[in-house]
Amino acid sequence: MNDFLVFDHVTKRFGAMTAVNDVSLSISKGEFFSLLGPSGCGKTTLLRMLGGFERPDSGRIYLEGKDITDLPPNQRRIHTVFQNYALFPTMTIWDNIAFSLKLAKKPKAEIEEAVDNILEMIQLSDQAWKYPSQLSGGQKQRVAIARALVDRPSVLLLDEPLAALDLKLRQHMLIELDTIHDQVGITFLYVTHDQGEAMSLSDRIAVINKGKVEQLDGPAKIYEAPASRFVASFIGDTNFFEGEITAIDGDYCYLAVDGFPQIKAFNDKSLKVGQKVDLSVRPEKIRVTLAPPLPEKGASINVFPSTVKDIVYQGVYTKYWIESSGLRIAAIKPHSRFLLDQEPITWNDDVFVWWHPDDGYMVEVQ
After folding, report:
1. How many domains does the chain have?
2. Are 147 and 85 in contact (CB under 8 A)?
3. pLDDT tens for each residue of 38-62
């Protein structure tokens, strides 16, 4: 095994329910890797099997070429950070971080150096003699991460570590986590149901659904080129156009959708006439204008007369829900200026929605 961390055809059942179904994953040393999926999809079970708290019914787990499937948790050099921090309330921050080193009977000077260094890294040196109750949520989370990292484990597992924090603090901690990972260079395995967290932090993401890996790729590819309808809908918002390919035009094809005009799309999968597809078009790819767009050189864009049915102002953008030939389409318009040199779009306006054929991504119906 050349990969640093490997799940090899791992399956785990709880009674009649299969929580993890024949999952194989390879994770590189020093990688920030995320397991992303809805509640109950099996991601935490994978984490618990890696940590040694659950044993797979079949398959093996390897770390640095060694089979660790049957090793107890304390022999794995793998530490976990939980969303509830799990700090000792009667110990100071310094003592919380030093706990595992003291338990391992490390020399006093080594303990002091290691704890002081990691306190400096998380920027809490001046809080060392406080107790957990005296810290904010973000500070507690940094202490929990420091305690897990102080004796340099092979892998750090993070199970929904930001779920208990408010939005602004979560956004700040995302930057802190990324910085800590870069500083320590340890493999991070991050479990979350929050797409934004995974997209912001990860080198690669495994999207999990019903115990199976639906797609394993970098964040950009998962967003722009989803492998399935589930991935397209779970990662951000999208519009689906369900139809059948009726004609091929070089690198492009035409899609017939019931009750809707013909749509042109880039045929990246070389699909054939007659094949059923789901065309995913992200809301930010769709333009909404009162006047029809000017034709683009060398490309026939998709243009559809429509009516505005709902508008939600979100500060950095406005989201429109538009009805076109009986279909409800979501579109997003970002705001670059407060005062726009154009007539504003409002409810019940007759508008045009349009997008370039390259801006849709086809998912073949299974």
Report:
1. 2
2. no
3. 999 999 999 999 999 999 999 999 9
pLDDT (mean) for 115-142: 93
Report the candidate in 184, 188, 193, 180 with the shortest Cα–Cα distance to residue 142.
Answer: 180
* Residue 122 contacts residue 149 (beta carbons within 8 Å): no
Which CATH number does the domain housing residue 93 bear? Answer: 3.40.50.300
Q: Which two tokens stand for residue 1?
A: 């095994």
**Cβ neighbour number for residue 106 with a 10 Å cutoff:** 17
Model confidence over 151-163: pLDDT tens digits? 999 999 999 988 8
Distance CA 365, CA 244 (A): 10
Would the CA dihedral through 307, 313, 316, 321 be positive or negative? negative
In terms of domains, do 357 and 222 share one?
no
Which position has the token pair 């961390």? 5
Sheet architecture: strand order including 302-313:
287-289, 350-355, 302-313, 317-324, 327-334
Name the residue type at position 223: Y
**For position 317, which CATH number holds?**
2.40.50.100
Same domain, 160 and 281: no
Whole-angstrom distance, CA of residue 167 vs CA of residue 170? 5
Domain boundary residue among 206, 233, 260? 233
Query: Are 10 and 144 in a shared domain?
Result: yes
Domain boundary among 198, 216, 233: 233
Rounded distance between C-alpha atoms, residue 182 and residue 202, angstroms: 12
Residue span of the structural domain in which 178 resides? 5-233
- Its pTM stands at 0.91
Angle at 300 between CA 256 and CA 221, to 5 degrees: 75
Q: Residue 279 corresponds to which amino acid?
A: L
The yes-or-no verdict on residue 336 having pLDDT over 90 is: no
DSSP string, 276-330: EEEEEE-GGG-EEESSPPPPBTTB--EEEEEEEEEEEE-SSEEEEEEEETTEEEE
The verdict on 108 and 15 lying in the same domain is yes
Report the candidate in 137, 117, 124 with the shortest Cα–Cα distance to residue 92: 124
